[in-house]
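User: quick one, fold this
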Amino acid sequence: MEKFNFSNVSVLVIGDIMLDQYLWGSVDRISPEAPVPIVNIKRTSLAPGGAANVANNIASLEAEVLLIGTAGEDYNGEQLSQVLNQNSIKHLLFKTDTPTITKVRVVGNKQQMMRLDYEQPKPLSEEIKNSMKIEITKCIDDFDVVVISDYNKGVCTDDLCRFIIAEAEKHNIPVVIDPKGKDWAKYSGATLVTPNMKELNEFIGYNIPNEDIDVEAAIPEVFLNSGFKNLLITRSEKGMTLYDGVQTEHFPTFAKEVYDVSGAGDTVIAALAVGIASGYKLRDSVEFANMAAGIVVGKLGTVPIKKSDLIRDLHLSYNKIISNENIPDLIESLNNENKRIVFTNGCFDILHIGHVKYLEKAKELGDILILGLNTDDSVRRIKGEGRPVNREDDRAAVLAGLSSIDYIIKFDEDTPLSLIEKVRPDFLVKGGDYRAEDVVGREYADEVVLIDFVEGYSTSMIISRLRCEQE
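Assistant:
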């Protein structure tokens, strides 16, 4: 799973397609006409919504995807097609006589202020439904997994859902469904159904407390006569609960900060589908989807999960030491989140209090501290034979234990010039014994900062003292 190579994965997504529009602005006063904030709009953006957002997440994970659904013969329908093309999402849109479903979100000071919905949902006409069935029959065998993204807007009728599941079963293709409404009988035969707590409550007919024991107690009622094989309940800050027909397992959330839950369910089902299509076990696919959801809720707006986000989060969770081949994905992800990157480098042969204080001050300059660490060969060329005292893997492991350091990247050259060129930090930090104009890589940083070392501490002094004591 660590490589996240999904280039051979293909997913068919069928469901209710929408266009998401965002109006981004700032708020600094209340309207004199009514007690409402005035949002001064600065920019607008468009994004795929509903089933299209599921497809966008799959495409962003660099898997193959085909999206099938409907859109109106209107301006928003044209905009939707353009957005899908811009995001490299293959699609087949059947034109209807109803407007393209559009959700407009007004965001002021990074806070969603209002949502405006344009929709006239109604069931598919027999003509469009039959045309859709023909196309699905033609192509379904080309895919590893089928996703039904049901937003209860008219596409996912009882007849069509049962048809899709039956066709998939003929070819032994798993079907994953994001459900809506009270009629889940149409999902009978599905591999996995993924309701959130609101959808679960609506189906059962009463509110279930979002606690493990209460969710577990409700599962038999949901599963009884359902006909689907597995149930995954997404539970916001409580994570996820998986029931495979035999046992229940709870997965705590990966989310660190929650800015916007828009589209989180789409990310979950997209990641699940890609995981299952890749041959992951169901439990591993749930872990993968849980990680992906934890990332996207930390972003504002309907934002798809990217492979670079997963690579960064995986390393952040399990290993701070980044390989050179993962640097571009890491930096892209950090830049997308507007993180201020601080870079420094050194041998850090024998870690001492001077190093610790220096690194703490460096981290205070920004959001992320990346440390370039000289390899053993590099240290030997610079410091001479007998150095380093500690091997590069040992030095990296000790440094990784410091909370001030976010990532460690080893470099084999005498200077970190090429590494700094790849990172292009906001702040390039060196010790106070340097002059700014002499700092290597300064042309690739926005600012050079010099930090004084703690007086009386250095690796060379420690080594000399140890040698004197031995003599």
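User: anything notable?
Assistant: Residues 324-470 form a domain with the Rossmann fold fold (CATH 3.40.50.620).
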